Amino acid sequence: MGMRTTFKTLPEDPTELRAVSELMAVEIKSQAYQIEKLKKELAAHRKARFGSKSELPPENRTLT
Hints:
Elements: H1 2-8, H2 14-50
């Protein structure tokens, strides 16, 4: 959890601050990727445990 300590001690120097912000951006992208991966994994586990949903999402419903 190095990012939490970084927020407490941001550098005053603009060059160093840019470097820290770039590292933070990389970390955020990595975490976003990890979250999406875990969401898909969770959905697969739910589907395996409970089966497919019987209802379609609203965009896939038709009134016939």
